[in-house]
Each structure stands twice: as structure tokens, then as C-alpha cells.
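re: ur msg from earlier - yeah i can do the guanosine-5'-diphosphate complex, just paste it... oh wait u already did. ok heres what im feeding in:
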Amino acid sequence: MATERTLTIIKPDAVAAGHVGDIIKMFEANRFAIVAARLVNLSKKEAEGFYAVHRGKPFFESLTKFMSSGRALVMVLEGENAIARLREVMGATNPAHAAPGTVRKLYATSIERNAVHGSDGPETAAFEIGYFFPDVEPV
Ligand code: GDP
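and the outut:
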């Protein structure tokens, strides 16, 4: 299996609720190494650029407003098969469908306020890492 890098965001709901430490603990327990990190307070425009693929969807306005509503912790994680494995550790988008023990099952409060983001494929990971960390190699 290949070493990969992926982009995660601990979203404003989880930062505000004080879950940063617990979520990072889960990442580290699952053998992800943090190779870059930034605490950000996204502007609406930055959130719209990050989620550009969702432009036009009914939840785009609400999502980008939420993502720019407070501090968020953006990180590049590295590990074996990191992209798919992080998605497993995160759990399903809708916490009602997330498996027990996943980040979203534990900390998400709705389909929108779902605690974490994780890249969904190698091309997305390269775009998303570059969006926040232009100097970091996507691997
Ligand atoms: P992800 O890859 O699991 O994060 O899910 P998506 O790429 O489909 O959606 C991006 C983000 O948009 C999700 O993490 C949610 O925060 C939000 N989202 C997705 N679907 C919905 C929805 O049906 N309603 C609302 N309000 N937000 C949604």
C-alpha cells in the first residue's frame, strides 16, 4: 500500500465545542502523521472556493456560511492509504448513518455540522492540500 497525504479540516462546530484534542487523538491512534497544520477563520469567499464543486447545490449557501462561521483547524495528514482510511475514521457524511466509533458518530450534530472534512480521492486531495498549503507536496 502507498503512503498518501490527505487534507482534513476540523470544522467550526467541532472547534467551538472543544473537540480538537479528541479528534487529533483519534487521527494519531489511527497512524496518521500531521505534516502541516493551520488554524484558520475562513472568509465566505475562501469557503466557496474550497467547496466550488458543490456550487449550485441547495446546501451550498448554508455550508459555506457555516464553514466561515468560526475557527477551523486545517491539516495535512500522511499515512498508508491515508485518503480512504481517513474517510473510514470520519464516518458517513450524515451522522445518522455513521458507524459507531467514527468521528462523525461521536461529534457531528447534523449532516452539515459534521465535525470533519476529508479529501475524497487523490485529485481532490492534491487540489485541497494546494488550496491551503501551496508549499506542501501532495505526495
Ligand atoms: P463529505 O465528503 O462526506 O464531506 O460530503 P460531501 O462532499 O457530499 O459534502 C460536503 C459537505 O457539505 C458535508 O461534509 C456537509 O458539511 C455538507 N453537506 C452535504 N450534504 C448536505 C446536505 O444534504 N445538507 C446540508 N445542509 N449540508 C450538506
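cool cool. The first strand starts at residue 3 and ends at 10. ping me if u need the other ligands too
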